[in-house]
């Protein structure tokens, strides 16, 4: 049997030799990763390691990215972000970015723009999001900016789901949230995984990420320096060494 992370093993999302950066600044150097259907994989690394840049490049939102990003075998590198989204990759960026002045329902409908053209499918999509996040029930007409941070993260995730993606990229979904809301978000992530979604999640909290994911990649200086099963990496002291490094107290 081929190892889960091995190439050619029917991964939904396959990234190889990915290079990305900002203008003349090269940030991501030859990243390769796999995410299969029904699998949650995490991407770890300290501040500035290149996690967000990797996510942006996979989603087509980092101009000039090179290499290979395949979704269900189809290469999408170099396509406009909207076309990458239409191919089945959805990114929920850091900091639950939604339209705070629009209602919950309007935010969700924006996510449906690419794929769901008939209103019945849109209503069905909204019902699915509310089923996933009961905290949003009855609040479709509420202005999203009035929601708590965790509820806004639910709307951001819901907006991404409205496009019926095959692969979901989540950049620090639990950042700044109270523990109960983190549980709600991760509970939803697990239900999506069980339904066959391929999920790639960036987190700063090593324990949280390894608990949610079956496999993990660890980045340093724009490269993957460690990868393996979460269970195995949980007992590998190198993970903390790379992720925490010498910059532990910088944020406190
Ligand atoms: N818009 C930008 N223009 C130029 N350089 C950038 C830009 N965004 C990020 N960088 C640089 O790219 C590098 C990687 O940043 P990135 O945001 O990918 O890291 P990260 O691993 O997501 O970090 P964090 O954990 O802090 O979110 C950093 O050195 C950063 O300064
Ligand atoms: Mg980041």
| CATH 2nd-level architecture of one domain | 3-Layer(aba) Sandwich
Q: Please state the oligomeric state of the protein chains shown.
A: single chain
- Which ligands does the model contain, each kind named once? adenosine-5'-triphosphate, magnesium ion
Q: Distance between the terminal alpha carbons, to the nearest Å? A: 46 Å
SSE order and pairing:
Blueprint: E1 13-22, E2 25-35, E3 39-44, H1 51-58, E4 66-71, E5 74-75, H2 81-87, E6 89-92, H3 104-112, H4 119-132, H5 149-161, E7 167-171, H6 179-194, E8 198-202, H7 206-212, E9 215-220, E10 223-229, H8 230-234, H9 237-244
Helix pairs in contact: 3-5, 4-5
Bound molecules: adenosine-5'-triphosphate and magnesium ion.
Walk me through this protein's architecture.
By secondary structure, the protein is of the alpha/beta class. It has a domain at about 1-90 and about 200-245: 3-Layer(aba) Sandwich (Rossmann fold), CATH 3.40.50.300. The protein is built from 9 helices and 10 strands. It has helices at about 50-60, 80-85, 105-110, 120-130, 150-160, 180-195, 205-210, 230-235, 235-245, and strands at about 15-20, 25-35, 40-45, 65-70, 75, 90, 165-170, 200, 215-220, 225-230. The strands form 2 sheets. The protein has a 6-stranded mixed β-sheet with strand order 6-7-8-3-9-10, sandwiched between helices. A 4-stranded antiparallel β-sheet has the order 2-1-4-5, covered by helices on one side. The longest helix has 16 residues, at about 180-195. The structure holds adenosine-5'-triphosphate and magnesium ion.
